[in-house]
Every structure is written in C-alpha cells, then in structure tokens.
Design goal:
Length: 237
Amino acid sequence: MLELNWPNFGGYDVAHRHFCDTIRRSLTFGSTENLVKHCWFSGSAIACFIASLGLMQMSSKAWSATQAEMLRSCESCHGAHGDSQVTSTPRLNGQQAGYIVDRLKKLSSATGKSPHAKIGMFKELAAQNDATRISIARYFASQTPTGPEPSDRGAEGKRIYENGIAAENVIACNQCHGAQGEGHDATPRIAGQHADYLKAQLRLFNIKFREHTLMNPNTKTMTAKTMDALTSYLANN
C-alpha cells in the first residue's frame, strides 16, 4: 500500500491531510478516474479552506482597524486615554466598564430620553454593535483614573456624600457610588470627574431631563448649594 506522509503546515494541516488521504484511497482502489475526480474536489476544498483562512485574517485586521478608528474618535473629545481636559466633557479613564456600555447603548438610541442622544453622540454611536461597545468600555476602564482634588467646600461635601441630608431627602451617595466614589458595575465612578460636568448632570437629574430610577427622586429637592458642596468634594479640575 502506498504510504503518504504529511509535514505539519500549521493551520493548513487538516486540509493537507484530507488531500493525502483522498489520493491514498484512490490509488488503493486502482481507479485513475477516481483519482482525478477526488483530486479535483479535494483541491477545490483546499482552495476554499485557504481562502476562508485569509478572509478570517482580513476580518480580524479590519476589526482592529475599526476599533482603533473608533477609539480615536472617542479620544478626540474625551481626551487621550479618556482623560478629558474640557470641563463639560466627562472623563472616561478608569470609569466602570458596565456603566460605559450602558451609556453607549442609551446614547445610541434615537428614542432614548437623553440630552445628548440626538446631538453629538448619536451619529458616532448609532452603528455600533455590542462587541464594539464592550471593547471600548474595557479600554477606558483599564486606564488610570483621575483622583479627586477637594476644594474649599470639600469637607462639607464629604459629610453629605457619607451621610446624606434628611431635610432635602438626599440619601448618602456612598450607598451606591462606593466609599471613595469609585462606583461599581453599571454605577459610575464619580470621583475625579469635572465639577462642571457633575453639577450639570445633577441638574439634569433634578429636572428629569436625564432619567434614572434612583437619581431623579434623590435630586428632586437637592439645592444648588448641596450640588456645589458635593462636586467640591468629588471633582478634579
């Protein structure tokens, strides 16, 4: 019996082995016609196999290019590594990945009740799929976060953050956002954020222009003075 051996061709070894087995079977049964026929089909199969590997590699490269392009687009507004230098644009460096994914989904919805959905963000996000959102979120979550730098009313803001204000029906912020404002899962990191951005979001929650099950009632009677104190404790400008 004819012995055919095959070297290791890495990703092509399976197709090469199938080709050799086909030749062996054809020669064993002594049919030249079968040999030609099997070789034709096997050759086609190998060609398709090799082509599919090439497409997979091209697809992977295309995805990497798309991802890099999307990150550049994000950083054009949110700063290098997500460390925004514009006080009205939120920092994303060190932000919770679950929160980023959740916000990307909401901001990409044309029907979502978000103040940014139909302005700057919708155009950038509408075509994103879940894999892209997760990849972007993981990238920014892995960056070093900006720490807070409390200002003149920082001590007052710390008391409110840790204890709340019963008279304003404001619960302690640390119950959801963590002891240091680090957040978790879909609850955002707020420590080290821009003061202007934090105050703007508190006002949007206050008037229900930005909807959230917990934040709307918790900020409903929150005064501007309380907002200023909290941002003085949490922010870094």
